[in-house]
User: Fold these one by one.
Assistant:
Number 1:
Amino acid sequence: MLVAIEGIDGAGKGTLTRNLVRLAKADGVDAVSLAFPRYDDTRFGKLIGQYLNGRFGRLDEVPVRFAALLYAGDRHESRAELLRLLAAHELVILDRYIASNMAYNGAKLPEGEREALLNWIDEVEYELFELPPPDLTCLLETGAETADRLLARKPARSYTSNQRDLHESEHGYMKRVAEVYQYLSENDRRGAWFRCRTQNADGKLLPPKEIAAEVWHRIRVSLTLGS
């Protein structure tokens, strides 16, 4: 089974992915994870690092399809590794996948122009590059303001020396990304989607282990039904 974890920067995808692998193994499920982009492992991943450092221009200066191809190319280079993991393990959990490309690049366009881009990315990644669709996609729902505060706590990253990369530093961008994610989740592109709240009604963050337990329950049910 292939499960993708999606959400805006700072939503907690990496933490959730690690906790899910731990829960799966404790439950006797052979699980492994893979994170995209693979900044240090692919040629396109290194180009993504340059893009996020502003080497190709400001966010509004980089052609949207050019940026989308960088992310698609990273996964195309990683396809053999992803297929190997799927063949060798019962469960593969991805920290970001193709929906990230759709959400982050779709958010750069006016609402009326987004659908054409989403269809184009779908065609490139799934049809042309023949990447496997996820069986399940979990969207972590974290408020843009909360996620922005959490970004300040992120440790140093290999692809940038800046506190915030090109996406994270653009005011209002993450809110638009969240809106596209919401649209994607409501239209169930390529596999089933479900949403998981990371905050209570008062806006307080839920414990990571509580979030992981809820998501793992959904995955475990799907694994059981699929067996």
Note: The chain has one domain: 2-226.
Number 2:
Amino acid sequence: MLMLAFGTRPEYIKIKSLIKSLDGNIPFRLLFTGQHTDLLSNVEDQDVTRLYIKDRKNRLDSIVLSVLDRDDVFDGITSVIVTGDTTSAFAVALAAFHRKIKVIHLEAGLRTYDKDNPYPEEFNRQAVSRLADIHLCPTPDSAYNLGMELVRGSVHVVGNTVLDNLTHLKPTKGNTVIVTMHRRENHKNMDRWFKTLDHIAKTYSHQYRFILPIHPNPNVLKHRHLLQNVEVIDPVPYDQFLEMLASCSYVITDSGGLQEETSFLRKRSIVCRKTTERPEGLGEFSTLCHEPEDLFQMFEDMKSAPEPKGKCPYGDGYSAERIIKILQEEL
């Protein structure tokens, strides 16, 4: 029996198309690790095994401990799919490895080779790669990384499944700038990022609406008052957020996966991070902004840049179909 594990909203979004493709082709179970506690209200599938995280002093420790030593969860499971680089993914992969269960890594091979950027994700994905038996890579570059690391198992380039959710959208260019900021490594500078964002929004208020769905992390929320000229809204359902992306002018973000969605929708983005594990879109679709003080000039540069002409480097929206064929051959 195959098990699909997820613990966060982005992980569930990335396996939605895979769930639909697996149904009727390969028997499977779903495991929710509970990393994002409010997620299950949005999960369409009712047959989900749920774990509960007992929060201790260190949240990352708590997530790992909730998965380990749970033989009941893995009873009858012969293979496990984990996605990306969350602590949930690492914990499930480690527990499966301890039980000689085959590990399949979706979104494999992304790298910055800087264990502090992003933290703890860079360690998590490198560790999962050492445990995995099947690596499902989004791009040739990510497959190349695994080849250089001499990982065991089979390596396949399939694109990113998150793009499977976007094929119905018809992008337009409105007057909104979508902003998302939440990454752990930006928490210490969140006030500086927000002050700069508010300055940009005030300067261009006659031309653009700046909209920021606020992340619920307390380290983000405590700086909300700094955004006087940015329209701060509560988090929105994923389908609604996609519609916002499809109709916006630009995106300012510190997200990893959003670089893929903006590229697919042919939107330029500024990525507020020191480095990125998705370098394929740099220059054509995205630009790195290392410091808050650089953001204003980078926004002006983005406004005057030509429209992207290249194709999205992260996939074509049909990854799940490729993955099903691989799983039918290998499992």
Note: The domain at 2-160+315-330 is CATH 3.40.50.2000 (Rossmann fold).
